[in-house]
Write a structure and sequence with these properties.
The chain has about 350 residues and is mostly helical. Helices cover about 55% and strands about 10% of the residues. It has a three-stranded parallel β-sheet with strand order 1-2-3. Bound molecules: tryptophan (TRP).
C-alpha cells in the first residue's frame, strides 16, 4: 500500500469507450485505486487543443466517458474523479508554467509533428497527393487552423495537470513518454529558476496491457467502426463476435489454420484460460471458427452483461453523476489550490 503516493491520469473525452480502452488502460486504473491515492480526470481542455471548432459534443462526450469509467469500476469513494475544466487552478498554473517553458522543448516534441501529420492527413484526405501533403506538412507553421498556440502548448497543460496535483506516478501509454519528460523537466526547471522544489517529479507507470484488435484486425478504434463498446447490448456484441476476422485460408471447420492474426484468438487470450489449448486445436483443424466464436461470446457474456446493466444505471441517474463530479471537483480543487498557492508565493506574485 502506498496510499500516500498520488497517481494521476486523464483521457481526452472522445465519447463512449470500447474494449480497447478498457483492457488497454481502464482496467489498470481500476486496480490502481486500491494501491494509491488516485486522481482520474476527463481532459476536456485538452480536446480543445485540436477540436476547438467542434465543441458541440464536448459536454456529451465528457459525460459518456465518465459513465464508462464508473461502469468499468472507477469508484468515487476510492478515487478523485473530476473534469479538468472544473478546476480553474489548472488554467492559472498553466499560464505560469507557460512563462517558463522554452519554445524549443515544445517544437522538438516528437508527438507535436506526428499529430500535425495526422491532422493534415485527415483534413486533406483524397484532396492532396503524397508529395503535396509532404510539402504541406513541412510548412505547418503557416497553417494557422491546425497549428494553434494551445496545440503547441499541449505538453505544458499536461504537465500542469500532473504537477498541480503532486502526482508521483502517471499511468500512461508509451506514446506519452515525451510529454511526461516535459513535465519532469518543468518541475526541475521551476526549482532551478526560483530556488525551491515545489513539485513532485512524476514518473511514468507503464503496465503490460493486452492489445485488443478491432473486429477487422486493425487497432480497435471508434473511427474505424471496428469496436465493441463498454456496455453495448448483448445481441449486438454477439453479432459482432460472429463477424470477427479469422484466418482467411480456413474455409471449412476442419481446415487447419493459423491463429496468429486471428481476432477471435486475440480475444480468447484475454477471456479464455484455455486459450493455448484452443490455439493447438485450431492449428490441427480440430476447431471450427463458428464454435470458437460461440465459446468466446459465452466467456465475454457475463462481463458484458454486467457492463450493460451498470452503464444503464449511471446513464439514468443524472443526480448521482452530478454528485460524483461535484465531490471530485472539490477534492481536486482543494489539492490543486495548495500547490498553486505555494507556486505563487515562490514566484513572488502574491501581495
Ligand atoms: N495526453 C493524454 C492522452 O492523450 C491525456 C492527458 C492529459 C493526460 N493530461 C494528462 C494523461 C495528465 C496523464 C496525465 O492520453
Amino acid at each position: 500500500m502506498q496510499k500516500d503516493k498520488i497517481v494521476l491520469s486523464g483521457m481526452r473525452p472522445t465519447g463512449k469507450l470500447h474494449l480497447g480502452n478498457f483492457h488497454g488502460a481502464l482496467k489498470n486504473w481500476v486496480a490502481l485505486q486500491d494501491k494509491y491515492n488516485c486522481y482520474f480526470f476527463v481532459a476536456d481542455l485538452h480536446s480543445l487543443t485540436t477540436a476547438y471548432e467542434h465543441t458541440e459534443n464536448l459536454a456529451e462526450n465528457s459525460r459518456n466517458m465518465l459513465i464508462d469509467w464508473l461502469t468499468a469500476g472507477l469508484d468515487p469513494e476510492k478515487s478523485t474523479i473530476f473534469i479538468q475544466s472544473d478546476v480553474p487552478e489548472v488554467s492559472e498554473l498553466n499560464t505560469l508554467l507557460g512563462m517558463i517553458t522554452p519554445l524549443g522543448w515544445l517544437l522538438r516534441n516528437p508527438t507535436y509533428k506526428e499529430q500535425i501529420q495526422e491532422l493534415l492527413k485527415q483534413k486533406y484526405a483524397g484532396q492532396l497527393d503524397e508529395k503535396s501533403l509532404g510539402e504541406k506538412i513541412n510548412s505547418i507553421a503557416g497553417d494557422e487552423e491546425i497549428s494553434s498556440f494551445g496545440f503547441l502548448g499541449y505538453p505544458v497543460l499536461m504537465a500542469t495537470d500532473i504537477l498541480i496535483q503532486q502526482a508521483a506516478y502517471v499511468p500512461v501509454g508509451k506514446d506519452q513518454t515525451a510529454h511526461l519528460e516535459i513535465a519532469r523537466d518543468l518541475a526541475r526547471r521551476f526549482a532551478e529558476i526560483y530556488g525551491e522544489a515545489v513539485f513532485t517529479e512524476p514518473a511514468p507507470l507503464y503496465t503490460e496491457v493486452a492489445r485488443v484488435p478491432g473486429l477487422d484486425g486493425r487497432k480497435m478504434s471508434k473511427s474505424y467502426h471496428n469496436a465493441i463498446n463498454l456496455g453495448e447490448d448483448l445481441d449486438s456484441v454477439r453479432k459482432k463476435v460472429m463477424t470477427m476476422f479469422t484466418d482467411p485460408n480456413k474455409k471449412k471447420a476442419t481446415d487447419p489454420a493459423n491463429p496468429e492474426g486471428c481476432v477471435v484468438y486475440a480475444f480468447h487470450r484475454i477471456y479464455n484460460p484455455n486459450a493455448a489449448k484452443r490455439c493447438e486445436e485450431c492449428k490441427a483443424g480440430a476447431l471450427g471458427c463458428v464454435a470458437c466464436k460461440k465459446e468466446l461470446f459465452a466467456l465475454m457474456e457475463p462481463e458484458m452483461k454486467a457492463f450493460s446493466e451498470r452503464r444503464k444505471l449511471f446513464e439514468n441517474d443524472e443526480a448521482l453523476l452530478q454528485k460524483i463530479v461535484a465531490i471530485g471537483k472539490d477534492r481536486a480543487r482543494a489539492n490543486a489550490a495548495k500547490t498553486l498557492a505555494t507556486v505563487k508565493k515562490v514566484m513572488r506574485i502574491t501581495r
